[in-house]
Design brief:
The complex is a heterodimer of chains A (296) and B (1104). With 296 residues, chain A is an alpha/beta fold. Chain A folds into 2 domains: 3-217, P-loop containing nucleotide triphosphate hydrolases (Rossmann fold), CATH 3.40.50; 227-276, no CATH class. Chain A is 34% helix and 28% strand. Chain A has 10 helices and 14 strands. A 6-stranded mixed beta sheet of chain A has the order 6-7-8-3-9-10, with helices on both faces. In chain A, strands 2-1-4-5 form a 4-stranded antiparallel beta sheet. A 4-stranded antiparallel beta sheet of chain A has the order 12-13-11-14. With 1104 residues, chain B is of the alpha+beta class. Chain B has 5 domains: 4-279, no CATH class; 300-501, Immunoglobulin-like; 645-797, no CATH class; 804-923, Immunoglobulin-like (Sandwich), CATH 2.60.40; 933-1103, Jelly Rolls, CATH 2.60.120. Helices cover 35% and strands 24% of the residues of chain B. Chain B has 25 helices and 45 strands. In chain B, a hairpin with a 2-residue loop joins strand 19 and strand 20. In chain B, helix 2 (22-43) runs antiparallel to helix 4 (59-84), helix 21 packs across helix 22 (752-765) and helix 21 (728-750) packs antiparallel against helix 24 (788-797). The longest helix of chain B has 46 residues, at 253-298. The termini of chain B are far apart. At the A-B interface, strand 6, helix 3 and helix 5 of A face helix 1 and helix 5 of B.
């Protein structure tokens, strides 16, 4: 699966340009889309899953134009939108079966087997007879993932996948995705939770105000921030001074003092030492330095 | 483009969601409950259903479908708009939008979900009447009815509503607005276009005519199918357009375009159906106008008269082929170069000869014009005409104006299409109204709308029906192989013909043959009256004798046949005739199995009879009961000699009338006048001596009665103008009133009995022939020395009317020799502008409505008919053997409101040594009043009202819609938020008896009587009351106390009086004595009372 995006732009009727002239190449495997709220991630994904049209530019999926060949592209897609509530009066298995019947042409027996398999995968088999609207937020999310997977999609588009999931569910979810990514499946994750991408994606892009501000591997993004992440143990007064000047990434109270990580181009405090950066540091650095968004 | 698998999948789960929707479940449960109650109450044996509801096997499923059609549409609107709406906050739809389905799959899947559910619900609901039907020992099961009515009513309605709801929500993206729009559309259709435009706009099929007859089957299927097809197709088209406009990217651009095009094409296809429907209606309107124009063109053209007419008619499939041999005569006193026949415009003339030679003729619409002939005055000729085809029934009843023509035909809860003729291969019904044979009389035209040209013709009819069918017509019948020949013994004005699977039951009594022609399976009457076979002839003799004594005439024909015809057959009243087409010479056409005629419902009649017997502790044999039922039917329906009827006068001018009187007079005799075309109808009206008690409630609805409305019209507009420009109901009433006035006037001049006998003798002396007005008026002048012309002229031309004041009513119990008798003296003054006619009658005893024996009719004898001349005061004296309850003074045409005054007699005191008086005499008429008194009535300027209650918004809106300038209001239609005037006999007034009324309240609303007194001093105060019970029904039989509240402003201050009504008399009631100065005093009445309605009428000050 190869997704080739050139000059993709979406301008809403009210004049707001949600995405501007995006160029991207996305291959198989997990692809992370990072950006603050309002960066244009959801608009981009909705275009990708044929729910809305771009204003200009082209988007080819395995060489098929998304505007001309939706009928061929849609069978390849699995989609989990950001805000996902279920039909109020369908049971868990019914909802999944409804999706399965539309997405596949399996026989009834095969389809029901698959429904149960997926429910098991996402840990919902025990509640298969429960009404979908009676599920907890995490369960609903997992059911959403199951319905996205039911058609064995070649392109899985997941908007804010781990919102509302507890850590255990989040790990389970990441594992499911990791397993999938071993196959010839392109998974596009959009998130503002950096951890989701750092732990799963080999490729990523960062969007801000509708534009791609970074594209590459998470490691590549982290490399760009190496040497700018500092760690120091400070008392209250020092900490207060520091946080007025630099974006603080983390603060941990240790023995009556604060263990603080900050992003800075130069040493922010005499006791500060360089530390190994992660994707979160890179994200903050990008927001602060490259995009001029003050996080202080 | 469309995947059935996807549609099915979507529909499966969406219907599951809908099924779990509480709204649907409530709707379904309510439907089940409602339909169960309805079916059990209406059709099951739990409460002996009306026969008409069981007799027709199509009714049960149709009634249920009709009952649910509107609520079902409302439910569909709510569910459909919810089903397709896309909530922007929830992206749930989008996971389905990315599935490989087309927009059409999505829309049709959702629509199908709705359809499945509602059609399933329909099936379940239909099971209820099905069970009732199958378990009923009397109803016939008709499987087809259970199939076609859901298909014709529910399916198109649900599809149309769903399509409309889907499209509106898709375009407007707002569910509440879409619901309001569609419900509003249904509301507009139901309120503004109810029964309009042949119900083309009735998308719920609530009033569309689809009821089938057991005799003729469906009669309007072409129209109904087109109408239902239109809404079905529009619904489907709108679903396609919904898919086109759906806020989801289509799978392919070409698919989207194709979807839109198909939607538009379907809508265009549907619009052809609509155009077709519109044309079907419009063609009737246009044709009728053309036919009337043709009549206008020919009405003044001299024409021949038919002497004899032999018709041979053969049924050919669903058409006819006829030949007519007509013996004509030129009776115009001038040679004729051309003459014409009228003939149904659907029939085509193929051959026409005069005296054996082919002639030139033009057949245009209903006129066959024969030209280039030379027919000298009084010359006769033989015309032979061959014609055939199908009957175009739009020619019938041209005199009926469009809105009356399109008025629905009410039958149970349906409005079956009105039919005037039937021509199918298995059933035929033809009357003169559809001109099924050539005639030389011109029908309705604008030139002489009231004119009726009549001729009596020697007919002979040969009928060759389709196999297995029996024809029924006038005259003695002989049958040779398939050929039936009818030879009437007398000349007739018209022939009618019914052909169907009739079987005959016949009995001959006193040399008249009575027959019932019915369908073989319709033997309900024989089953229900099975004990009467040996007594039927005696019963008939009794009834006939009683009727003929009343009418002073004998039945002039040799047979009387009752023929059941399809329930769709409909007749109208006409200006110039006193009968409807249900009555033909020797024949009565009855709706199949008695239809909705109450007294034909023998089972219910038997039930009521049993109840009555129990109440009266009577023990009647089965035979006696059946005899009573039979007599009740004949006397209620056919001779109008018993029974009573409540009706809203003026509302339906075409209430079916099956009175046999037309066969005694109209079809037997006639006085033909060129100058007074309405005279013959007036005579028929006068001679027809119906004894049925009719109770009109138009006053309760409109404030004044329909008669008074017409009297007012006659004061404002000339009779000629009324005949040409008024609505038919007013024309009919006016003609009736004028006739009544005319003959009451003549009756008074020469004696009512003498005049009636003279008329009856005239008819008996001229059987089966028409006489001229000249001969009649000469004979009348010879015998009674009166000038009929001048009286008719006076009655029909004068607009000024009398006005009667009842000055005094005295009543005493007296001794007449040894007999205790009752003397009633009534002084009446005519203070109007013309001489007036009065009819005074007394009522005695209880009104036992609805019972089965002869005593059911309230006795109204003795009475008096009198003329009171302008300015005259007359005293009428009656010596009665029985204590009268009330006296009824009918002023016929007058300025009086009510025009028929019903005065309660009340208590009667004894009086001795009084000179008894019986008869009438002119008196001076001043009522002796030595005491000074002042009366303030609600009609006077000294009477004021105060209504501070603001009407509700709804009431204010409803009031604003009625722009007519009304002075009086009906008591049944108002919410009484203010004081309004109404009228009635129980109220005070000289010519207009009225009072004000309002809904009772807390005392905020007031009326005040403020007198101007000539003398200061102590006065006795009296109030005029309806009696102890102001509201007729409330508080009867219990000990509740009811009061009115008065505020007296007198010379010494203010007194509040709570007046107990329980012992009040009808008339003046003493309130108290107070000192009043010349001005400044008043009496007020508040709206406070235990009754729901408070009346305020008049107050009297009597100087002590």
């Amino acid at each position: 699966m190869n997704i080739s995006i050139t000059g993709l732009t979406k301008v809403y009727p009210n004049g707001h340009a949600a995405i501007k002239n995006i160029d991207l190449e996305i291959g198989s495997g997990m692809f992370g889309l990072l950006g603050p709220n309002g960066a244009g991630k959801s608009s981009f994904m909705r275009i990708l899953v044929t729910v809305q049209k771009s204003t200009s530019g082209s988007l080819l999926i395995d060489g098929m134009d998304i505007n001309d060949q939706r009928n061929k592209i849609r069978p390849l897609i699995g989609y989990l939108p950001q805000d996902f509530t279920f039909f109020s009066k369908l049971k868990t298995w019914e909802f999944l079966d409804y999706a399965a019947r539309l997405a596949t042409s399996l026989s009834k027996k095969e389809r029901l087997t698959k429904v149960d398999y997926l429910l098991d995968q996402v840990g919902l088999l025990d509640v298969r007879e429960r009404m979908a609207n009676k599920l907890s937020g995490g369960m609903k999310r997992r059911l959403g993932i199951a319905q996205a997977l039911i058609g064995e999609p070649k392109l899985l588009v997941i908007d804010e996948p781990t919102t509302g999931l507890d850590p255990e569910e989040r790990i389970r979810f990441r594992n499911i995705l990791s397993d999938l990514s071993q196959k010839d499946v392109t998974i596009i994750l959009s998130t503002h939770i950096v951890g989701d991408i750092s732990s799963t994606c080999h490729n990523m892009a960062m969007l801000n105000k509708g534009e791609v501000v970074f594209k590459g591997s998470p490691e590549g993004m982290i490399d760009q921030v190496r040497g700018f992440v500092w760690q120091a143990t400070l008392d209250d007064e020092e900490f207060n001074v520091l946080k007025m000047k630099y974006p603080v990434v983390s603060t941990i109270p240790v023995d009556g003092k604060w263990e603080v990580q900050v992003i800075a181009n130069e040493q922010p405090h005499p006791r500060a030492k360089n530390t190994n950066p992660n994707l979160e540091h890179a994200y903050v650095y990008f927001m602060e330095n490259e995009l001029g968004v003050s996080l202080v | 483009m469309i995947s059935l698998k996807n549609i099915w999948t979507i529909s499966k789960y969406e219907s599951l969601v809908l099924w779990r929707n509480w709204f649907f479940r409530i709707v379904a449960l309510a439907g089940l409950l409602f339909v169960s109650i309805f079916s059990i109450a209406m059709f099951s044996e739990a409460d002996e259903p009306r026969w008409a509801q069981l007799a027709n096997s199509w009714i049960m499923p149709y009634a249920v479908m009709q009952l649910i059609c509107i609520p079902q549409v409302a439910a569909v609107v709510f569910l459909a708009t919810g089903l397709i709406k896309k909530d922007k906050k929830v992206d749930t739809n989008e996971v389905f939008f990315v599935r490989p389905i087309s927009n059409l799959d999505y829309v049709f899947g959702k629509a199908l979900a709705l359809f499945k559910l509602f059609f399933l619900l329909n099936l379940v609901l239909l099971c209820i009447p099905l069970i009732v039907n199958l378990t009923s020992p009397f109803a016939t099961f008709n499987a087809l009815a259970f199939v076609i009515y859901p298909l014709l009513t529910s399916v198109p309605s649900v599809v149309f509503t769903t399509g409309l709801a889907f499209l509106l929500v898709t375009l407007l993206r707002n569910q509440p607005i879409s619901i309001v729009l569609i419900v509003g559309l249904a509301g507009v259709q139901l309120i503004y276009y109810f029964d309009k435009f042949s119900n083309i706009l009735d998308f719920t099929a609530f009033r569309l005519s689809m009821l089938a007859s057991e005799i003729s089957g469906h009669v309007n299927m072409g129209f109904a199918l087109r109408q239902r097809g239109f809404y079905f197709l529009v619904g489907v088209g709108l679903l396609f357009l919904t898919a086109f406009f759906l806020d989801r990217l289509s799978s392919h651009r070409r698919v989207k375009i194709a979807t839109g095009i198909i939607g538009v094409v379907i809508l265009i296809g549907a619009s052809f159906l609509m155009v077709d429907l519109w044309n079907m209606r419009q063609k009737t309107i246009d044709s009728r106008e053309q036919f009337i124009s043709m009549n206008d063109e020919f009405v003044a053209v001299p024409n021949v008269t038919i002497l004899a007419h032999d018709i041979a008619i053969e049924q050919l499939g669903s058409g006819i082929q006829s030949t007519s041999d007509i013996n004509i005569k030129n009776t115009t006193n001038q040679p004729l170069n051309s003459f014409y026949f009228t003939l149904n415009p659907g029939l085509k003339v193929s051959e026409l000869t005069v005296n054996g030679s082919a002639v030139d003729y033009i057949h245009r619409h209903q006129i066959v014009l024969i030209e280039n002939v030379n027919l000298k005055a009084n010359e006769t000729a033989n015309v032979a005409m061959t014609y055939g085809g199908a009957i175009d029934e739009t020619i019938a009843h041209l005199e009926v104006e469009q809105d009356r023509y399109e008025n629905p035909n009410e039958y149970f809860m349906f409005s079956p299409k009105k039919k005037y003729a039937f021509m199918k291969d298995d059933y035929v019904l033809l009357t003169k109204d559809v001109m099924w044979y050539p005639d030389t009389e011109i029908g309705y035209n604008h030139v002489a709308p009231a004119k009726s040209r009549r001729q009596l013709i020697d007919f002979k009819l040969q009928v060759k029906p389709n196999e297995g069918l029996t024809p029924v017509s006038q005259g003695a019948v002989t049958i040779e192989s398939q050929q039936h020949t009818f030879t009437p013994e007398y000349p007739l004005s018209q022939l009618s013909l019914a052909i169907g699977r009739y079987v005959q039951k016949e009995i001959t009594v006193d040399s008249v043959s009575y027959s019932v022609y019915h369908y073989p399976e319709n033997t309900y009457f024989a089953d229900q009256l099975n004990e009467l076979s040996d007594t039927l002839s005696f019963l008939i003799t009794d009834i006939v004798n009683e009727y003929e004594v009343q009418q002073q005439m004998s039945y002039p024909f040799k047979r009387l046949q009752f023929v059941e015809v399809p329930l769709h057959f409909r007749a109208y009243n006409k200006i110039y005739e006193n009968h409807q087409a249900y009555i033909q010479p020797e024949t009565v056409y009855l709706p199949e199995q008695g239809g909705d005629i109450r007294t034909f419902d023998f089972r219910r009649q038997m039930r009521d009879m049993n109840r009555q017997s129990r109440q009266r502790n009577e023990s009647l044999t089965e035979k006696e009961k059946q005899a009573n039922i039979f007599k009740d039917l004949i006397k209620n329906v056919f001779t109008k000699q018993s029974g009573s009827m409540w009706f809203w006068d003026g509302r339906d001018p075409d209430e079916p009338d099956y009175s046999l009187f037309a066969n005694y007079y109209d079809y037997n005799s006639g006085i033909v006048s060129e100058e007074w075309p309405l005279l013959d109808r007036s005579i028929a009206n006068y001679l027809r001596n119906d004894k049925q008690q009719v109770n009109d409630y138009s006053r309760n609805l409109n404030g004044i009665s329909f008669t008074e409305e017409c009297n007012q019209l006659m004061r404002e507009v000339s009779f000629e103008e009324i005949l040409t420009e008024s609505k038919f109901n007013k024309i009919q009433k006016t003609v009736e009133l004028k006739s009544q006035y005319l003959f009451a006037y003549i009756g008074h001049l020469i004696g009512d009995e003498q005049f009636r006998s003279f008329l009856a003798n005239w008819v008996v002396g001229h059987p089966h022939q028409l006489t001229s007005y000249d001969d009649f008026s000469k004979a009348l002048a010879q015998q009674f020395d009166i000038d009929l012309d001048s009286i008719i002229q006076k009655v029909f031309s004068e607009m000024s009317q009398p006005a009667f004041e009842v000055l005094q009513l005295q009543k005493y119990e007296v001794l007449d020799g040894d007999r205790k008798r009752f003397q009633v003296l009534i002084d009446i003054k005519n203070s109007g502008n013309n001489d007036g006619v009065l009819e005074v009658k007394f009522n005695f005893g209880d009104d036992r409505r609805g019972s089965f024996d002869e005593e059911a009719v309230v006795e109204k004898e003795p009475g008096m008919l009198s003329v009171v001349r302008q300015g005259e005061v007359k005293q009428f004296g009656f010596l009665l053997d029985e204590r009268p309850n009330s006296v009824n003074i009918n002023t016929i045409i007058s300025r009086n409101i009510p025009s028929e005054i019903n005065l309660s007699i009340g208590t009667i005191g004894k009086k001795e040594r009084v000179t008894l008086f019986e008869g009438e005499r002119v008196i001076q008429g001043s009522v002796d009043n030595s005491q000074y008194q002042v009366v303030v009535d609600n009609e006077d300027q000294e009477f004021t009202t105060f209504s501070p209650i603001e009407p509700t918004y709804l009431r204010a809106y409803l009031d604003s819609r009625d722009t007519t300038d009304k002075k009086y209001y009906g008591k049944w239609f108002r919410s009484y938020s203010k004081w309004l005037a109404t009228t009635g006999s129980d109220f005070y007034g000289d010519i207009i008896r009225s009072a004000h009324f309002t809904r009772s309240g807390k005392g905020e609303k007031l009326v005040t009587w403020t007198p101007e007194l000539d003398e200061e001093g102590f006065y006795d105060l009296y109030i005029y009351l309806k009696g102890p019970n102001q509201n007729e029904y409330v508080g009867q039989g219990d000990n509740r106390q009811f009061h009115y509240n008065y505020i007296i402003n007198h010379g010494d201050g203010t007194d509040n009086i709570q007046y107990n009504l329980n012992n009040a008399e009808t008339g003046w009631n003493y309130l108290g004595s107070y000192y009043f100065q010349k001005s400044g005093g008043s009496v007020s009445q508040t709206d406070k009372s235990e009754f729901r309605t408070v009346y305020a009428d008049a107050v009297k000050w009597v100087k002590q």
